Amino acid sequence: MTQIAGYTLHSIETGRFRLDGGAMFGIVPKPLWERRIPADERNRIPLAMRCLLLRGHERVILIDNGIGDKLSEKMIDIYGVDFREYELRRSLAEQGVTPEDVTDVILTHLHFDHCGGSTRYEGGRLVLTFPHARHYVQRTHWEWATHPNLREKASFIRENILPIQEYGKLVLVDGDIELFPGVHVHVVNGHTRGQQIVRIHDEENTLLFMGDLVPTHAHIPLVWIMAYDIEPLVTLEEKQRWLEEALAGQWHLFLEHDPSIEVINLEEGSRGFQMVHPRALAELHNV
Predict the structure, then answer these.
(1) 257: closest CA among 209, 218, 206, 216?
(2) Which of 8, 137, 230, 271 is least crowded, fewest Cβ atoms below 10 Å from its Cβ?
(3) What is the pLDDT of residues 158-188, one digit of tens each?
(4) Per-residue model confidence as pLDDT tens digits over 16-26
(5) C-alpha torsion sign, points 74, 79, 83, 87
């Protein structure tokens, strides 16, 4: 059992999907990135949609919630969505948690693979998956997502987003802030405007939920940046800042999209930052 800052932490697997490897690694040539995460015959790499559950201080907090179950068959095929092994509500149930138990949902950002589980259809009507939970989004990102630019428009699906506001469960956050004891959010803008990464910390340990700032272990090198990012040079600066802090503090990094690794630490190598101690979140209890 992993505990930080008075919370018990659990990894919540919500399903698997696939994205184009070239898009996931930008300017990095395929012969390099494919050594780390091999592609399928359609050039797509497997990715997790791994969320984080915190229980403590009389709260049940979920960070992100995956892609949800509202995509069309065409989109399921394009993105290789697979719920055979993992699914949001099933994974919560394995931890003894129902959607009604969740008190708070922190959304790193509103791209469909991070917030699609926020809503579902019930009797032909869109409802909130977590009806009692407040949903925390950066104000700048909410404006960005609800008035999308052409480049990101396809990633912001209104059915995932607007019901949160319509049901009165939206909480807009302004900048870096402590949401709950030992739980801070920090704004990064390179991937999309107003993404928030989440830091859970106490005097002994810090876990940093990386979101799409560092989606997989293969994105640890500073210039390995997704083509999806709206401002890659900003991502570069943000990665350097946060990875330097993580290295100095020996923080644990939680990887949302890595297909096989949940948590890593960093060390300084001959070519910059490199991964050490890859492990499952549950293995942190003895650190």
Answers:
(1) 216
(2) 271
(3) 999 999 999 999 999 999 999 999 999 999 9
(4) 999 999 999 99
(5) negative
